[in-house]
Design goal:
eight-stranded parallel sheet; three-stranded antiparallel sheet; 15 helices; alpha/beta; TIM Barrel; 406 residues; 40% helix; 2 domains
Length: 406
């Protein structure tokens, strides 16, 4: 079998489970954290280093790769994995989030504002709208050079087939928490219609390129913070012929586990679920125990570049004065290359001196910490000791010596 999903154990008194996703480029033991290599590179870290720290797959972005270097170049190189020298499984998201976030000037989800009633109201101050959505697709301007482009369900599938990732996502209209309930419903309808069009185009392209490895297609569930919309979207998307599912869109961190639970309850049990854009430690616990199988997020590397480092005893900024001259590693419990070879004092110096080695070393640590945490979650689920592990780990993370130093 070149692709599929098998459940290997279930969390007692919870929706969580462990499993194995099989792809043409290898298996993914789940739950698993998938580092983000947006443009075909995990920022400042060699592919070999990403593999050595335990990552089982990488997720890249169809929007960015479409604009630069272009899908023809990636296709002619033998696909994303060959292009970036990554032999393990690869994911691509559809680009829907980037079309929205870059198109309206937002970089992250904002709070719900009930005064926003139409799409055109949701625009960041001082920004021009670069993306316009209609039932057929999205017309947008490149954030690189202002050139005009058009994405539809069919184009997204064509782009992702050319990129050649093992797992790809259907094109969806990604909303924010600023959109009203009425607009969330409009976006859900569009996303459902686009989902079927993605499936149809995916089938056509799979037949057309039958000599290439099969690419799994995941449908995306929207619905923001509304239980009825999330359940409706999950049920409708779950009834379509997808290989797995992404839980996406606007998510309120305060009720993250509850929202995931609504979605999981409506999705088929025998297919994998990917939680899009989630990677903070406490959120990973919420996702895994409520039934998410894989996660991706830029947070570990983005935070690292800004000097924010993760430890078993909380987070801290290595740029702060207490790290100056400190001979201890970032985390005495960590087995990453950085912690085994460099002190906080050295990292403090490298950051202050603006040396290029800093984002590499900091990113290696944060990535290893995050990948290892989800590995531990999986191991304890398999062993039947997850609840005890979570209680002890979270308590230490929230009350440790670094808990308030960020």
């Amino acid at each position: 079998m070149t692709h599929g999903f098998d459940i290997t154990s279930r969390l007692e008194n919870g929706r969580g489970r462990t499993g194995v996703i099989t792809t043409p480029h290898g298996q993914i033991q789940t739950p698993a954290f998938i580092p983000v290599g947006t443009k075909g590179t995990v920022k400042s870290v060699l592919p070999e280093s990403v593999r050595d720290l335990g990552a089982q797959a990488i997720l890249s972005n169809a929007y960015h790769l479409y604009l630069q270097p272009g899908t023809e170049i990636i296709d002619s190189a033998g696909g994303l994995g060959a292009f970036m020298n990554w032999p393990l499984p690869t994911f691509t998201d559809s680009g829907g989030f980037q079309v929205l976030s870059l198109g309206v000037g937002f970089k992250k989800v904002l709070s719900m504002d009930s005064t926003n009633t139409v799409e055109s109201d949701v625009i960041a101050p001082g920004k021009d709208r670069l993306a316009h959505v209609d039932d057929e697709g999205v017309t947008f301007k490149s954030h690189l050079d202002g050139s005009r482009h058009r994405f539809s369900a069919e184009v997204s599938m064509q782009v992702q087939h050319a990129i050649g990732a093992d797992i790809m996502f259907a094109f969806d209209e990604c909303t924010t928490l600023m959109n009203t309930r009425e607009y969330q419903m409009i976006a859900m309808r569009r996303t459902l219609e686009w989902a079927q069009r993605c499936i149809d185009e995916h089938r056509r392209l799979t037949l057309e390129h039958s000599s290439k490895p099969y690419q799994m297609l995941f449908g995306v569930v929207q619905g923001a913070n509304y239980e009825d919309l999330r359940r409706k979207a999950a049920k409708e998307i779950g009834e379509l012929d997808f290989d797995g599912f992404g839980i996406g869109g606007a998510l309120d961190k305060e009720t993250l586990g509850t929202i995931i639970g609504w979605v999981v309850d409506e999705l088929p049990e025998n297919k994998p679920r990917h939680l899009l854009g989630i990677g903070e430690p406490l959120d990973l616990f919420e996702g895994a125990e409520n039934g998410a199988d894989t996660f991706d997020c830029v947070a570990p590397t983005r935070n690292a570049r800004n000097s924010a480092l993760l430890t078993a005893e909380g987070r801290f900024n290595v740029s702060n004065a207490f790290s100056r001259g400190n001979s201890n590693p970032i985390d005495t419990a960590c087995d990453c290359y950085t912690c085994l070879n460099f002190s906080q004092g050295y990292l403090h110096h490298a950051f202050k001196a603006n040396e290029l080695i800093f984002p590499t070393l900091a990113s290696i640590h944060n990535l290893r910490f995050t990948v290892r945490l989800v590995d531990q979650i999986r191991e304890h689920m398999n062993a039947g000791t997850y609840r005890e592990f979570k209680e002890e780990w979270v308590a230490r993370f929230l009350t440790g010596r670094y808990a308030k130093k960020i």
